[in-house]
Amino acid sequence: MTSKPIKILIITGITIGVLLLVIAAAVFIVDTDFEVERPVTVERPVDEVFDYVKYLRNQDNYSLWGYRDPDMRQEFRGTDGMVGFVSAWEGNEDAGSGEQKIIGLTEGERINYELRFFEPFESTSYSHISYGTRFR
Q1: How many angstroms separate the CA atoms of 17 and 15, rounded?
Q2: Which residues pair with 55 in a beta bridge?
Q3: Whole-angstrom Cα distance, residue 9 to residue 28?
Q4: pLDDT higher for 1 or 98?
Q5: How many helices (H) and strands (E) does the chain have?
Q6: How far apart (Å, rounded) are the C-alpha atoms in residues 7 and 41?
Q7: pLDDT digits over 27-53, tens only?
Q8: Beta strand 97-106 with 86-90: parallel, antiparallel or unpaired?
Q9: Mean pLDDT in residue range 93-118
Q10: Which of 16, 70, 87, 93 is deepest in the core (most CB within 10 A)?
């Protein structure tokens, strides 16, 4: 006959094993890619809006990261508004640190970005802003 503490250990071990299997299965099943789309209407000509937002330095005027840490350090490399331009930041724990690089530009239509986050966690993401009568 098995003692009560041993039965509890066996049940606990089986429960933990099943939970680990569920977590391992979820890693392979859950899709990590996602898209977020937020349409914004601006009552200005598309060219005027595009010419404003393609410059990463202008993002300070509407950036959530800037609101989280108005004193964050920034560094800019390259020619703003052109492919290859990098805007880097290092801020408080809310803003973290990272950099944003323009990796593609279709004048008047779309800007593609690579976002590299260093703190509070490391990751790389890709984003874009598109313009016109609807988001693409």
Answers
A1: 5
A2: none
A3: 29
A4: 98
A5: 3, 5
A6: 64
A7: 777 766 666 677 778 888 888 888 888
A8: antiparallel
A9: 90
A10: 87
Residue 56: CB atoms within 10 Å: 22
Q: Which residues contact 130 (CB under 8 A, 6 or more apart)?
A: 109, 110, 111, 136
Q: Give the H or E element holding residue 29.
A: helix 4-29
Residue by residue, DSSP assigns 52-82 as HHTSGGGGGGT-HHHHH-TT-EEEEES-TTS
Residue pair 96/118 in contact (Cβ under 8 Å)? The answer is: yes
CA 88/CA 125 separation, integer angstroms: 15
**Alpha carbon of residue 24 to chain centroid:** 25
Mean pLDDT for all residues in the chain: 84
CA-to-CA distance for 25 and 27, rounded, in angstroms? Answer: 5
pTM for the whole structure: 0.67
In the block, residue with structure tokens 């290859």: 84
